[in-house]
Every structure is written in C-alpha cells, then in structure tokens.
C-alpha cells in the first residue's frame, strides 16, 4: 500500500534534474500514503518520470524496492496496493525458471510481465492496485486500475504531457494542470455527494474507471483505453448446497490471503452480517485474539457499538471501541478538506476516519466487509425501488402495457392462422410489439439513481450558473434479474465512487491499509453466480454466519453506517458550518444556501443538502478559493 505519481512529456525537453524536481513535488503531496520511504526512476530520453511512496506492510529484500525493473530491463513499474495471489503466481513462475530475491508481490509483478506481457498478467492478478508500467521495448506507458476500483488513479493529458498520481493533489502541483472547476462534475457532486469516475472536479483531469487499461504510445502520443474485465452475473434461481459450500471455502481462502502481512491485522466491526462474517473467518484463521474496532454514538438510534461488542466477545476477539462525540466530530469535520482532496460528502466519512485512527494505534492492516451489500443485495432500497417501480408501471403505463399484451396475442393469432401468409399482415405482426414496447430495465436504473441521491441537491437549484447536461455514467446493463441489475449498478457506481473512496482516504491519511475480502475477483464472480434473493436479508451470508455466531447476535433490521449529522450541525458544528455557509461563493447561489441553512436550524431535516454544500466550500477554502 502506497502512492504513485509520474509523467511522460509530449516533448522530452527536461534535463534529469528538472524531471526529478517535478516528480519530487508530486511525491511530496503523497507522503501520507507512504510514510516509510520513496523511490524515483527517470529516463531523460523519453522525458519519463515514475515515483513511488512506500507504506511497508509486507515486502522486503533487495528486489522489493519500487519503482522496480524486470530482469531484462524491458519493464519498469510502480503500484499502489497489494497483489494477494502473489505466492501462487511466484510458485508458478519459479517452475518456469524465474528466481526471486524479495519475499513480497513487487518482484512477482516484474517476472509476470516478462513471462506473459501486460494483458495476460492482468488476467492473472487478484488484488487491489493502481499500477503504472513502462514498456521500454514498445515505448508504451500503461496505467491500470483494479477490477473493483479499490485504489484511485488520477490522470490528465496536460499540455501534451501525460501526468498521473494516486490522488488529485499529486496532479495539482504539475504546472500544466488547469485549475478551473468542472461545472458538470460539480453538478454531479451536488446531486450524489461524490464525483463518479471518470469525471473529476478539475477540468481536464480524469479518474481511471475500474478494470481499465490505459495505454499511451510515446512515439505517436496516441492514447487508448479498454476494459479488461467485467462483472458477469448468472441467471440461476436456486443455490445448491454444493455452491454454498464452494463459496464458503473460497471466501475463507481469499480472507486467508488478505491476512498475510508483516504487521498486525484487525477488522472494522459494526456487528452487521458482512463485517461479522469477516471477523469470524479471520479469527478462525489466526492463533491469537483478533483485534476488532468499532465506533459508537451518543444518539441511541444510530449506535451499533453494543452489537459489535457482543459479536467480538462471542468470537473471542480483542475488541476496541470509542464513542464519537459531537465535539470530536466537529474537530474532524474541520480537517476533511485536507483529507479528501476532491469534494466528497458522505457524512459517514467522519466516523470512518475516527475508527481508522483508533485501529491505527493497534494494527497496520484492517479488513472490511465492503462489497457484501452490493453482491448480496443487502440494501433495503433494492426492494423499495422495485416496489415503487412496479407501482409506477401499473399507474402510468397501464394502457401501453395493455396494448403490448394485446399486440402479443394478435401476433400469436396471426401466426397461428393461414392469413399470416399475406405480406401486409406479416408486416403488422412484426410492427405491433415494436409500436407498443414493454417497460425496459433502464427505466428502473434511472429510478434507482434518483432514489439514491440521498436528499442532496438538484444542481439547477443552487448553482450560480446553469450546469451542463450530466455526463453519462459508466453503465452496467446486462440482460439479467432486475434486482441484480440494481446491485450491479451499485458495484459500478456507489461502491467505487463513494464507499471505497471514503475508506481509502480515511485509512491512507493515517498510514493504515484496508483490505476487502468480498472484493476478490473470485469471490465477486462466485457471488454473482448465486441467486440474488432480493428482500431476504442476504440469505447465503446469514446461513454461513450462523455456523460461527447465534442468529440472535446479528438478526436485526439493517441500520447502515450513519452519523447524527443533523443534530451535530445544530449543535457543536453550528459555528463552523455557519461561517462557511454564509461567506460569499461565486459557484453557489448565496440566497438559496442561506435559506436552506435557516430551514435546517428551524427543524427541517436538510442535513445532507447542507453537508454537500459545506464539503464543496471547504474544498474551495483549502485551495484558497474562498
């Protein structure tokens, strides 16, 4: 786990000292991601610079340093993250004649590139990574994101130069990066509380989408992107016992890989199904009490700490908990503009950072249950959205659906009769279903997107300038079960753009590595091969968890990782929030902002709308734009 940065010049006209100075400026911005050291690799012939900040979790030995270079000198690489199946790859490569000096994953990556090239290597890797690879033989620079989007990578073609970094701050110090705000991305932020990849708050900057290989041809300056993997759900309707047992064994093996580290490993434990199953499997893997960490709140309706405490006690874990008061939350909130270098407004970011600080005092790696809800349809909003969609379909499309059904019967009658031999009747038979189509799954996705804006703000209501049309999202729309379709949408959007951003920035800010066993490639593919079971509360996971815990410890309505934000904004955060909201900002309509704030203070629950405006204004202030 670390940070990477670098660039390749469109015209290689910098001297070595200039290349190093510019790269060092980028790496200095990523020191928090890798406080244990750094590495730099330069090639003046190409105007190429690759840098790496180190957080020492596992790798050691003379071949572990990054940027690394393959045995032939063809490949140079650096990456942020972990390759979990490196031991299995290493054993296979040794049978092919490769020899290793280091004990970790870095050197294995170089040997894989030598043996199989970039495309086949990506097919074999299982891990979380943002990766850059320079192929000196072909003059190509590759940027790669992991399959689920766990690790971030920002990039830009700035003045003809390709520039990249693990965080936006690593690009902002590059002199050719524009500083203007992307109005379309700002509109998305106000609506969703995050900015979906590939878009970015700065004009001309993008985030690499999950499972993407970007290739820059240095000789021609040609840039191409392609996806190297996509989630593929099964249409099965019944899970066999053999499938369940196979999934259980697979999850255990993948969790075992994620427990490999030279530092202590713990678990973020909420007491819910996903984190409790991760904790149970991890405790079974370890020969000592597993450190677990949870956060509680004074607001009893949101406090999950008692549930986590009971689970940890039953499993025999070494449990740590802390209560997040309003005053602590206010202190953290004042620093969020520094922790998140792009506007981000999932208010649970406060608690996530606090529990990361708690965990970092005891461990260097923490396991999470992220991905369980998306893979096993654990959010209550799935069934709620389907119910609302069916109601709207009945109410608004009765005539259209009736005509579609009538057209279907008429087609059947025409085909069953001899009259269908007439050419004009054949044309009628083909045209009727097209004239009266049934509702499409895309309508459902649009409804779900509206349902998941979490009460933020419609951009046109608050932006000083009318926002441009919203850029298209990265869509996953396979021909599959409608409930599974919503889960896939979350896997491609909500998970990488919200959940994983929140966890990455919160943990990296304190030098803590977070690992998500549910996001292993093989676990994802196995989970998607199981029936979706919407509205049944994650049947498969609960069945597995009952082998480790009594159902009474986890059977309860899903609560979610929420904070009492509304009360905090009217209490300990009020002075900080008011000062930010009432100062003048050229991007937002001041009158609308002030009205929303007054209404919230008067008792309306507008905390999500207030929070998204606060996080944008704080982002501006950190950059001296407010």
3D structure, described in words:
- By secondary structure, the chain is of the alpha+beta class.
- The chain folds into 4 domains: 226 residues, Glutamine Phosphoribosylpyrophosphate, subunit 1, domain 1 (4-Layer Sandwich), CATH 3.60.20; 212 residues, HUPs (Rossmann fold); 104 residues, no CATH class; 63 residues, no CATH class.
- The chain is 44% helix and 15% strand.
- The strands form 3 sheets. Strands 2-3-1-9-8-10 form a 6-stranded antiparallel β-sheet.
- Helix 7 packs parallel to helix 8 and helix 7 packs parallel to helix 21.
- The longest helix has 19 residues.
- The radius of gyration is 26 Å and the shape is globular.
- It starts with a strand and ends with a helix.
- The relative contact order is 0.12.
- About 1% of the residues have low confidence.
SSE arrangement:
Elements: E1 2-8, H1 16-28, E2 38-43, E3 48-54, E4 68-69, E5 75-83, H2 86-95, H3 106-124, E6 127-135, E7 140-145, E8 154-158, E9 161-165, H4 169-172, H5 183-192, E10 205-207, E11 212-217, E12 222-227, H6 241-258, E13 265-268, H7 273-285, E14 291-297, H8 305-315, E15 318-324, H9 326-333, H10 336-339, H11 349-360, E16 365-367, H12 372-375, H13 380-396, H14 398-416, H15 423-435, H16 441-451, H17 459-462, H18 482-492, H19 494-508, E17 513-515, H20 521-528, H21 539-545, H22 565-570, H23 574-582, H24 590-601, H25 607-622
Helix pairs in contact: 2-3, 6-20, 7-8, 7-21, 11-19, 13-16, 14-15, 16-18, 18-19, 24-25
């Amino acid at each position: 786990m670390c940070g990477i940065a670098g660039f390749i010049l469109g015209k290689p006209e910098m001297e070595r000292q200039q290349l190093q100075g510019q790269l060092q400026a980028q790496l200095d911005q990523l020191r928090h991601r890798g406080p244990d050291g750094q590495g730099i690799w330069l090639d003046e012939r190409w105007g190429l610079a690759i840098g790496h900040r180190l957080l020492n979790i596992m790798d050691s030995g003379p071949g572990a340093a990054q940027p690394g270079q393959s045995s032939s000198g063809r490949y140079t690489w650096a990456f942020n993250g972990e390759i979990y199946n490196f031991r299995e790859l290493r054993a296979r490569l040794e049978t092919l004649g490769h020899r290793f000096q280091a004990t970790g994953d870095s050197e294995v990556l170089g040997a894989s590139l030598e043996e199989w090239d970039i495309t086949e290597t990506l097919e074999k890797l299982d891990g979380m990574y943002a990766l850059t690879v320079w192929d000196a033989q072909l003059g190509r620079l590759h940027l790669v994101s992991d399959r689920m989007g766990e690790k971030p990578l920002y990039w830009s073609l700035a003045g003809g130069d390709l520039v990249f970094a693990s965080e936006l701050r690593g690009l902002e110090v590059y002199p050719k990066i524009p500083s203007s705000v992307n109005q379309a991305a700002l509109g998305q932020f106000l609506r969703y509380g995050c900015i979906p990849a590939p878009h970015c708050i700065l004009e001309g900057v993008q985030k690499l989408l999950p499972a993407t290989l970007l290739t820059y041809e240095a000789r021609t300056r040609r840039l191409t992107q392609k996806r190297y993997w996509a989630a593929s759900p099964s249409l099965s309707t019944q899970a066999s016992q053999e499938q369940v047992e196979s999934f259980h064994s697979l999850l255990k093996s993948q969790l075992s890989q994620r427990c490999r580290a030279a530092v202590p490993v713990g678990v973020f434990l909420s007491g819910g199904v996903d984190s409790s199953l991760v904790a149970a499997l991890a405790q079974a893997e370890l020969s000592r009490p597993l450190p677990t960490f949870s956060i509680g709140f004074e607001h009893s309706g949101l406090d999950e700490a008692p549930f986590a405490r009971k689970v940890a006690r039953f499993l025999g874990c070494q449990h740590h908990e802390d209560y997040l008061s309003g005053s602590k939350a206010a202190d953290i909130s004042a620093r969020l503009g520094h922790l998140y270098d792009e506007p981000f407004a999932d208010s649970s970011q406060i608690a996530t950072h606090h529990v990361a600080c708690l965990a970092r005092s005891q461990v260097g790696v923490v396991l999470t249950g992220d991905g369980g809800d998306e893979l096993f349809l654990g959010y209550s909003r799935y069934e709620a959205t389907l119910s609302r969609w069916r109601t709207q379909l009945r109410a608004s499309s009765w005539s259209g659906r009736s005509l579609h059904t009538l057209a279907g019967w008429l087609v059947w009658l025409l085909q069953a009769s001899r009259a269908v031999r007439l050419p004009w009747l054949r044309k009628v038979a083909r045209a009727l279903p097209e004239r009266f189509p049934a509702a499409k799954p895309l309508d459902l996705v649009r409804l779900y997107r509206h349902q998941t804006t979490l009460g933020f703000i419609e951009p046109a209501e608050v932006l000083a300038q009318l926002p441009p049309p919203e850029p298209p999202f990265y869509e996953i729309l396979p021909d599959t079960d409608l409930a599974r379709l919503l889960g896939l949408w979350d896997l491609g959007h909500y998970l990488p753009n919200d959940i994983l951003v929140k966890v990455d920035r919160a943990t990296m800010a304190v030098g803590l590595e977070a690992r998500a066993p549910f996001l292993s490639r093989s676990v994802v593919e196995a989970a998607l091969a199981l029936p979706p079971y919407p509205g049944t509360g994650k049947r498969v996971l609960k069945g597995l968890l009952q082998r480790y815990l009594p159902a009474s410890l986890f059977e309860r309505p899903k609560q979610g990782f929420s904070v009492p934000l509304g009360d905090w904004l009217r209490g300990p955060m009020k002075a900080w929030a008011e000062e930010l909201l009432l100062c003048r900002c050229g991007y937002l309509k001041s009158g609308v902002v002030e009205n929303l704030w007054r209404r919230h203070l008067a008792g309306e629950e507008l905390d999500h709308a207030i929070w998204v405006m606060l996080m944008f204004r704080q982002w501006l202030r950190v950059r001296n734009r407010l």
